[in-house]
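INFO batch 0412 | record 1 of 1 | parsing
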Amino acid sequence: MTDKTSVTKEAQKYLAKGQIDKAIAEWEKLVAESPDGNTFNVIGDLCLKKGDRKAAVESFHKSASFFRTEGFSLKALALYKKVLNIDPHDSAALFSLGQLSEEKGLSTDAIKYYLAAADLLAKKGKKDRILDIYETILSLSPSNIPLRNRVAEIFLKEGLVTSAAKEYIFIAGAYDEQGDYQSALDYFRKALDVQPLNKEAVLGISYLYEQWEEGEKALEHIREAAVLFPEDTDVLYRSAELSLKAGLRETAEEGLRKVLGMDAGHMKARSLLGEIYLKGGLKEKAWEEYLPVIDNLLLENKYDEAARLLEDFREADPLETGKRLVSLYRQLGENDRVRDELVRLGDILKDRDMIDEALSCYRDALEITPADEGLKEMISSLKKEPAEGTGGSPPVEGKTAEEIFTEADVFSRYGLLAEAIKLLEGLKPVDPQNIDLHTRLKTLYSNTGDQELAVTECLILHELYKRLGETESADKIIGEAFDICPDDPRLAGRGQGPAPEPSPAPVAAGAEEAAPDAAPSAENYEEELAEADFYASQGLTAEAENVLERLKGLYPDDKNIEERLSRLARLNELKDAEEPAGAGEIPDVPSADATTEPGDEAHGQQDRQLHHPDYEDLAITDQDLVDAQEVPEPTIDDDVMDIFQEFKKGLEQELEEDDSETHYNLGIAYKEMGLVDDAIKEFQLSRNDAKRFIQSSTMLGVCYMEKSLYPLAIETLQNVIGSVTQEEESYWPIKYDLASAYEKNGQLSEALALYTEVYGWDAGFRDVSQKINDIKTRLGEQDTEKPKEKKNRVSYL
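INFO prediction complete | emitting tokens
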């Protein structure tokens, strides 16, 4: 295992000598063995320092990906913005920023980044990725019809005809739900204009005509479609359905038969054909069509509909309906009905001389009602031993193995496992080497809990596979046997069972038994220390302490552990002394002059990293995060900007006036997009909430300055500064913004006084030192240029 401390020292030695490549090589040793977001970030910074922008971007992407996986979204956000400072056209970073914004609930920001990414990908010709991004954009505002219309136009521009048609069809459906018949029809036709053979649009128009009671138009339209789609079962079924509604029964029947000739599993066609036969009095033919429909309903758990149909056809086929009703009521847990149907089914089987099957039904019914004397007498009267040597009546007479398998599968499907087993066992003397037969029996025995017989079938299959030379299958089936019953003596020595537990090592005389939580190996010890170091480097001191305390219990005299615990204690003291309430959260600043709400970090962990010479900290610093905010806004073409505007309109319509958080976030997004008037409107709404007053008022002041409305900016910032104390994090940035407003309004003396106060708090804050020098120079020039005052002379004339 690579020693992190030694790697760090070597890398720092190389850096001190200006040997950046060698320093990078040292860090890469560490990251190859233990990938870490901070280390990737360091490598990226070094690559950037030596001018390798491509490698820097690659490393920053890896770092961001690592932090996202670990749940540190704010760090990932900063790193993607760091990438965009290097390459504003990095579509992957833009898309990731969109995802992160979406996760934070900032849907407008998300849309902005998604659109920028899609625009860049379109220019690079990567149309497959464009589709994914626009699908994501639409999912953020699914009911926004103008937005979808704009997206469809973009798709057409990029040659994505199928996707454009899909959007038009969606819009048509939305208008249909709203009851706007004409608009729905227009958009279905739009879809056909761009894609003439769009089946969904064709069917949509037919349903629309029918819904608006224009049956003749619907039938005429779908007949024309049937010419265009002669092999499409959905179109042909729709034609048959409309023909039936128009009273053309023979035409409908012919069409349904054509559909079933192409697709025997088309259940709608079978159901409709069964309905036609039933209305025509052909109940047996109807039952033939409805039987697979009922089986499908049972598989889909549509029990009520299946039960109704089964009751309707009980007389037509009492045996098949009975089997299905038993299964259905078992699924529903209605034991009384299960018992009644089993008895009824047993009576039918008995009348057909299927005595074994009848007995099985009666026995199953008796398990539900054990005190039923009538059932006991019935079972007793039917129990007759077969004559010696005859083996009973084989159930295979006149049936092929495939027919028996099919019948057994039906029994199994409906829970009649005993009947299925009897059928298959009757086939064994006839076809003893049939692998499918023994596989089915193995499964059935396992399902009924008969482990001995299940293992027997496994052993038979093992021998059959060996004879065929299929060694792998033979070994696999023995493994299954062990899974079924590992203690079966017949499996002894076959080498597939669980490995025997190792014998305990001999204990020396007088030695005590090892404690159950004995000390870990040297390798584990190193791993635990590395884990503690990782937690400490991330600022997760509580987790680091937990690991080290656990190790201390195992190694009470270990100096490495003691030193690390001491360092952590000092770090905690520093944190308590230096961090005021709320510190450690990094503001997600949208621009250099804006003050925003502090960002949250996943798992509630503090994102601020403490630096101390005792700990080599590779973590992203506060300054990294703040610097990463100053990202050039992505440039977006006018047609793509139209999509953003449509999204904005839709969002504003859905937005509640008192939803201050969304209004505030929307204001931030508008400001970043350069839509200052829209931003002002949103901030004016969000500042009505006391919780958002400070941030919203501050942003209003910034926006007023961008509009050159300096008196308004001064008034707004003066109001907000009066509600903030010096101890609060936002106080001095607001005071700086107020000074800037005074300066831009030409009130230099007032600006200088405020800048001087900020300088006294932190001489390195932004460019306050330069501001003071500039204003002093300008004030001096004013004094120099100021003309001497002339005394007023009084005339006595």
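INFO post-check: The mean pLDDT is 77.
INFO record closed
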